[in-house]
Amino acid sequence: MKRFFAVAVLIFWAPMAMALSPYFQGGKVTAGEVQSVLNQVESKLTKAGFNVVGKYMPSGLAGTGVLVVTDKNLLDTVRRLGGASIVGAPIRIGVKADGSVSYMNLEYWLRAYFRKQYPLADKTVKSTQAKLSKALGAGKAFGGDVDRKDLADYQYMFGMEGFESDKNVLLEHLAFEDAVKTIQDNLARGVGKTSKVYEIIMPDKQIAVFGVAMNDPKEGEGWWVKTAGVDNIAALPYEIYVVNNKAGHLFARFRIALGWPAVGMGSFMRIVEAPSIIHGTLTEVAGGAR
């Protein structure tokens, strides 16, 4: 009877164990101004050995902030994998003025970003996640769920864009250095009402990624994140990346869906213009025209 019960429990839990959620809740810190909350979380992560590369308070999303860090072992893994895996280099942590903290489930995101190469990174991903959880507190997973085996070829719905969509490409430059300098200059100038949150550049591999704050009051990230769900704030900021001489982004019907997998089609229809707006904004940042 005991053996039967154990088998029944395993069968019951197996489907749930195969699913991953995009975020974990961390332990709460002292409530206050968002900058104060960010500082508290930054201190925890710095002491744990993470390197802070950026932080910001998203425009139009009062009471929220995002901290972005890197981990040496994860960076080394990204360098080995190369290519568009660079989008998996930054680790994002979301905070709210009430002291709540959330952070990425690295396995979820990096299975989607590294795809067939994920097994080469699994050990590093799990050790980095353990270090992150120890620093911030290992709370419950949340934000929706996707089956592990589906993340490597993730699509919100059949026929929608994936990680390797042709729509990801924004602009082709003469050289890697030209693409990087153009993006740096345009973010510094606030082209398209944007600003830089972070940059991670690996010139030896000719790959780079930049976190982009979209600050336009009407077309920035604030309006669509409110619809998709502010609890998933650790999905921000959106990124633009460079591989060799090409600047690209993850098309929003993939990127937003990956960050908000529980959002229903009704909510997505309310932000149906977001993918083209994001594409247009990042095309300007890459040096092109809308």
Task: Give a brief rundown of this model.
The protein has one domain (21-146, 155-286): 2-Layer Sandwich (TATA-Binding Protein), CATH 3.30.310. Helices cover 42% and strands 21% of the residues.
What name does the CATH topology carry? TATA-Binding Protein
Estimated helix fraction:
40-55%
Q: What's the CATH C level?
A: Alpha Beta
Structural class computed from helices and strand pairing: alpha+beta
Arithmetic mean pLDDT: 93
Q: Kindly report the oligomeric state of this protein.
A: single chain
> How many beta-strand runs?
13
What is the H/E string?
Answer: HEEHEEHEEHHEEHEHEEHEEHHH
Helices, by number, come to: 11
Spatial separation of the terminal alpha carbons: 67 Å
* Biggest sheet, spatial arrangement of strands: 3-4-5-6-2-7
- Number of domains in the coordinates? 1
Radius of gyration, in angstroms, nearest whole number:
19 Å
The name of the CATH superfamily reads TT1751-like domain
What proportion of the residues form beta strands (DSSP E)? 15-25%
Which shape, going by the Cα principal axes?
globular
- Residue stretches low in confidence (pLDDT < 50, at least 5 long) are 1-16
Largest sheet: 6 strands, antiparallel
Going by CATH, the architecture would be 2-Layer Sandwich
